[in-house]
Amino acid sequence: MSAVFTGFRTLDVRFPTSAELDGSDAMNVDPDYSAAYLILDTDAGDGLEGHGFVFTIGRGNDVQRAAIEALALYVLGRDVAATLADLGGMWRELVHDAQLRWLGPEKGVMHMAIGAVVNALWDLRAKREGLPLWRLLGGLRPEEIVELVDFRYLTDALTPEEALELLRAAEPGRAERAELLRAEGYPGYTTSPGWLGYSDAKLERLAKEAVAEGFTQIKLKVGADIDDDVRRFALARAAVGGDVRIAVDANQRWDVADAVAAIERLAPFDPWWVEEPTAPDDVLAHATIRRRVSPVRIATGEHAHSRVLVKQLLQAEAVDVLQLDSTRVAGVNENIAILLLAAKFGVPVCPHAGGVGLCELVQHLAMFDFVAVSGTLEDRTIEYVDHLHEHFVDPVRIVGGAYAAPSAPGFSAEIRPESLAWFGFPDGEAWKGAQ
Ligand SMILES: [Mg+2]
């Protein structure tokens, strides 16, 4: 008897982070970091579960959970081995559902829900194969990787044949690069000093601490008030000196003219990049801003809702740095498409992280990219935020400003059962009396 999926459990998990203004920026002033969470069970008898989630920032996490629920029919009763052996086919089935597709198509709550399911399936597959996901993916043949990607809408920028060529070109040296990751990790940068709700003194102290911990790049939130931004940037620059990279993140606050004016004020402090200057899906506005503020570099992508938008950002020469997100698109498969597109256009990918578990997930994608796709660490770095890792079974480890390569089987997605219960919304202990 082959094993089938027997459980599709969803949870609404919320952390009351707004109390400390952790995670506060110009657009997201009081986030309660949350996860619409999924656990897949099977009757294989091996005790293994697949865990996945969508990161949200509080209200609406119930909506996101309901969207995940709507996909249970695709999983329950299905053969486990056959499903996990063809996750490209599974991705297409989920994304091309002829009725649910209307709720996007291929964007927003429903698309992110598919991401949770796809990521949970990858978590389970990696656990069953006894490998951390980055090593599982980095060990696939180029043909197997290409099979995971849906090239519909991409072929004007990247064909399956071109993807295959890229992957074959990166095959030599895979083992050495994996070994390098195990020895030295993957470069990271920290956003922890720069939240907009923090005082100047806290910003200065945390910036110095970050450098002392070994980080060579930090990031500041900007975009609420330009005079404040200039003051805080000057403080941070004085605190860390000229050699440490300082990126700034406007979290979508500006129109084109405002963005250009603000970036001109910030440019003297040497921003490493300016992130999300305007509406995340306004490709042409990003292209205009980039042209007008050059050589200041523009970064975006954490809210890019699909591989199609990423394709356009690249085609329009609208970005210098691409910031994929592990739960914004439809999971691992779509992020592989995004990594391949970025490699084709020669644009570095510096994944967005923070939130709940985003650091845990993206490290696997970035390490896979280094091993099997781009083959380089040049100008690559993964965002790091020192929040909420204690709730994870296999939390990220930062050593000297670098992400240590995960070694436990799976996608590092699993939240501890006691945390899932305590922060369950609205009935967990953490929320008693808060409503
Ligand atoms: Mg950002």
Task: Describe the fold and architecture.
The chain is an alpha/beta fold. The protein has 2 domains: 4-136, Enolase-like, N-terminal domain (Enolase-like, domain 1, 2-Layer Sandwich), CATH 3.30.390.10; 167-418, TIM Barrel, CATH 3.20.20.120. Helix content is 40%, strand content 14%. It contains 16 helices and 12 strands. It has helices at residues 61-69, 80-85, 87-95, 108-129, 133-138, 142-147, 160-169, 174-184, 200-212, 226-240, 256-266, 283-293, 307-315, 331-345, 358-373, 417-422; strands at residues 5-14, 34-42, 50-56, 186-194, 217-221, 245-249, 271-275, 298-300, 321-322, 382-384, 398-399, 402-403. The strands form 2 sheets. Strands 4, 5, 6, 7, 8, 9, 10, 11 and 12 form a 9-stranded mixed beta sheet that branches. A 3-stranded antiparallel beta sheet has the order 1-2-3. α8 packs antiparallel against α15. It is globular, with a radius of gyration of 21 Å. The N and C termini lie far apart (48 Å). The mean pLDDT is 96. Residues 249, 251, 275-276, 302, 352 line the site of magnesium ion (MG).
